[in-house]
């Protein structure tokens, strides 16, 4: 079930086999198990602490509850179905960002006789649209980012994956690249040309030093600081790269690292003309490491719906971390209250808005 239809069966009716539907014409709705708190008891540790369902099954059993992995999987899907309108709202706000950072990784999915290499993508909004939204696709084709970014027209910060090219050209998006990627390639080739590596690393360190000075500054002041201090470093570095390129054989490991930068120099230097563009894509890569950890523990998703469920729940817990929100408390209150929330009031339950209401409440945290 993708989306939240106007009718949903209660959990109790599913267990009894009656299948009786209850209508909620203008409100979101959920299962009884979600409202009672059992939904978050599975969704939180599975998607925030990365405990695989078989471990949760053992933990529940030690506490006297027999909750199979299949049941837990259904509950996670129910939580995701309930939260999907909130997820779509976060995605909409990310697409309103001036800068969107993105990355992707393999997400194995069960297929006939084997696992298929599906993908999990992340789209990180800027500070004015501070949401981390994951998206699951069946492959790494450009249709995934093309669909998510179909209405986007500003700056996309990403790696060198060619699948973004059609999206960028078709949408007139400005593409920015990551200096951390370039630095890693140089460090990887350090043994082949240690002196070149030393100089490049020192010059990139100088760029990051400017960024530390710019922390907390308004965009215009950050841009001025970059133009005064970073642009001279970037100009000198390019001259050095061109000189070293002439000295090295084309297949030399360091030549490949230098060509990586020179071939995308315009994208690497977008930050010199736009103070809102970060120097690197580390914020999205950090979140991808959590997906990798979850993948290591849980191994795969069962099907496309399982991938979609993982994307929705990861978006909520990741955005909670971004705003220093306790995801367990948030999910508990969300699942308790969301069935009675009108669509027009949905934004109040975004993690940042929820935290703001918590802080403003004279009686302390809402129950």
TrEMBL record:
Superkingdom field: Bacteria
InterPro entries: Transposase-related, Transposase_IS66_central
Limits of the Transposase IS66 central domain: 42-308
PANTHER family for the chain: BLL1576 PROTEIN
Name by which UniProt lists this protein: IS66 family transposase
Species assigned in the record: Paludibaculum fermentans
Lineage: Bacteria, Pseudomonadati, Acidobacteriota, Terriglobia, Bryobacterales
């Amino acid at each position: 079930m993708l989306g939240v239809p106007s009718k949903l069966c209660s959990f109790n009716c599913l267990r009894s086999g009656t299948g009786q539907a209850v209508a909620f014409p203008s409100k979101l709705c959920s299962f009884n198990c979600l409202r009672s708190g059992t939904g978050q008891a599975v969704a939180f540790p599975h998607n925030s602490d990365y405990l695989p369902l078989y471990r949760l099954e053992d933990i529940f059993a030690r506490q006297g509850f027999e909750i199979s992995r299949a049941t837990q999987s259904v509950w996670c899907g129910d939580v995701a179905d309930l939260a999907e309108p909130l997820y779509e709202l976060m995605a909409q706000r990310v697409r309103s960002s001036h800068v969107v950072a993105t990355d992707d990784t393999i997400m194995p999915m069960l297929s006939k006789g084997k696992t298929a290499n599906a993908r999990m993508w992340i789209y990180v909004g800027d500070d004015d649209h501070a949401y981390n939204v994951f998206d699951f696709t069946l492959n790494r084709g450009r249709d995934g980012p093309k669909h998510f970014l179909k209405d986007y027209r500003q700056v996309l910060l990403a790696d060198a994956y060619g699948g973004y090219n059609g999206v960028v050209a078709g949408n007139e998006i400005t593409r920015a690249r990551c200096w951390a990627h370039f630095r890693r390639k140089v460090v990887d080739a350090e043994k082949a040309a240690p002196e070149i590596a030393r100089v490049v690393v020192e010059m990139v360190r100088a760029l990051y030093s400017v960024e530390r000075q710019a922390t907390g500054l308004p965009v215009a002041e950050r841009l001025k600081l970059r133009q005064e201090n970073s642009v001279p470093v970037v100009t000198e570095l390019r001259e050095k790269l061109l000189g070293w390129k002439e000295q090295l054989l084309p297949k030399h490991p360091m030549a490949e690292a230098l060509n990586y930068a020179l071939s995308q120099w315009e994208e690497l230097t977008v930050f010199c003309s736009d103070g809102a563009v970060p120097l690197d894509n580390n914020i999205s890569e950090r979140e991808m490491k959590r997906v990798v950890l979850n993948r290591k523990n849980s191994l795969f998703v069962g099907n496309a719906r399982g991938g979609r469920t993982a994307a929705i729940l990861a978006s909520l817990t990741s955005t909670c971390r971004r705003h220093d929100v306790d995801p367990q408390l948030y999910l508990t209150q969300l699942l308790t209250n969301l069935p009675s929330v009108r669509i027009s009031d949905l934004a109040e339950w975004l993690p940042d808005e929820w935290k703001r209401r918590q802080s403003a409440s004279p009686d302390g945290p809402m129950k």
